[in-house]
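In practice, a research group might receive sequence data for several interacting partners and want a quick structural hypothesis before committing to experiments. The following worked case mirrors that situation: the sequences arrive first, and a predicted assembly follows.
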Amino acid sequence: MSALLTVSGVSKAFGGLQALSDISLQVHRGEIFGLIGPNGAGKTTLFNAFTGLYTIDRGEIHLNATRLDGRKPHQVLQSGLARTFQNIRLFAEMTALENVLVGRHARTASGVVGAVLRLPDTRREEADSRERAHALLRRMGLAQHAHRLAKNLPYGDQRRLEIARALATEPSLLALDEPAAGMNKAERAALRELLLQLQADGLTLLLIEHDVKLVMGLCTRLAVLDYGVKIAEGTPDVVNRDPKVIAAYLGDEAL
Amino acid sequence: MSSVPSLNKAQPRWLVFGLLALGLALLPFLVDAGLGRSWVRLLDLALLYVMLALGLNIVVGYAGLLDLGYVAFYALGAYVYAWLASPHFGLHLPFWAILPLGAALAGMFGVLLGTPTLRLRGDYLAIVTLGFGEIIRIFLNNLNAPVNITNGPQGINLIDPVRLGSFSLSQPHELLGYTFTGVHLTYYLFLLLTLAVIFISMRLEDSRIGRAWVAIREDEIAAAATGINTRNLKLLAFAMGATFGGLAGGLFASFQGFISPESFNLMESIMILCMIVLGGMGHIPGVIFGALLLTLLPEALRYTGDWQRNLFGQIYVDPADLRMLLFGLALVAVMLYRPAGMIPSARRRQEFADAKG
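A structural hypothesis for the assembly, expressed as tokens:
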């Protein structure tokens, strides 16, 4: 299997707090890669480092042949890494459709002149964007909410809308920060189906998740972080038996 | 999609457009006959403020960048016009060359002033832009020595009116038996340009660029993570807003024939902002309404002096004071009872309804 995302020796400190120490891992094309660890382990920090929201102190991040570290968030997205946020960050006052249309921004090019004069290229691009956006909403089961404000959607729908917006950017790697957080059992099952479908479509997924059961059943491989250090990496059953992982989650006494 | 218009729907639409066009064309004559010549002049001024408000609406309403120094671009447009079409430097270039030049220069300054503020938001941005606005005004006030560029507080006088060949907007013209005075003709020119500004605003609002602006306003980090180059789009918003401001400034200079730094103070910026907030931020009909209301209402309130004299035989409250008092009360009332503005966008209305319920 070929590596899509290669992280080598990434470190990041906030003042005296070493949030990430020398993290290296590889996400392979077509897999669902899980990133787990107790609260404060550095999972979201690592996500923010991938997506250009934080600059890292040391190390390198590559997506395919493109170096991601040192790039701005919109450039990271342009090179094919899209993300969702742990605390949903939709454009609250825009409709569901508009949210997804914003996702098309990076893959379209019309400027002011095109917009004002409605040039043929702009019209074509806009029609194409709308078609794709509607298709994504349908796929996420949000078609009936297309013209509702994002903030008025039920929680589960907001989560799915955020995924739809990320998918609209045509990523090669989709990074989801706790997509199942706050979901009930039925919603979790639906999410699981959705993620498997996306994988079947050829998308590579990177997933932060607290729900160990969901992660174990879904992920091809896992990495476990604890206090900013990667303590294990491998298939779910290998990680599951790793004494360091058990210690991190349950405390040393459990051994 | 709804690209196929049904006939019975399209007809009334054209009818509405036709009636609206006729109404707008006749408006200065009706106003002239009903209220007097000075009100046609006010109408011209109101159109200028519609342009200004729509320009600031791009920055504040769409992109969510609270700009309190907007009047600086208005001033720049006005001074560029004055420099190139007045005896001050002895230049008398034609308006069709200066107006775009002034607008473009203002747009450039929009980028220039926008660049250092890119990392600022909300209150901090407001303070810094307020500072920029004041800097420009103070420059204009003091650039009369050692080289006299702005003529200082005296301002620049005898600015050329808009003129095409021998056809000048400052003189009356006869057409088909009707006399079109300068203020009437100015109205048509301003109306044309205002319609252009409205058109551009509408097209931008419903486009890739407009959506990106709103996304930045809503959540800048999420916007960046969704692939929007927030730096460029914020600068674009500043530039577009400033361009409209510069255009309005040039028209103002040609219309008044005289400009001085006094016309471009902080109060002016705040008034334009009030027009947007009062009318309905980010919503074009609301912004237009706000601009018309805040230009015309204070003038209408001048009549309170006459009423007092008729009613009590003398004036108890100076109309100018009463004007500001009623004006302030009206602002407070709107904020209390229609917090989303007089004509809010469907979106904002929804938002405020949700916040209440």
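Before designing any experiment, note the following. Chain B touches chain A at residues 1, 199-200, 203-204, 207-212, 214-215, 218-219, 221-230, 236, 240, 347-348, 350-351, 354 (CB under 8 Å). Residues 1-7 of chain B have pLDDT under 50 and may be disordered.
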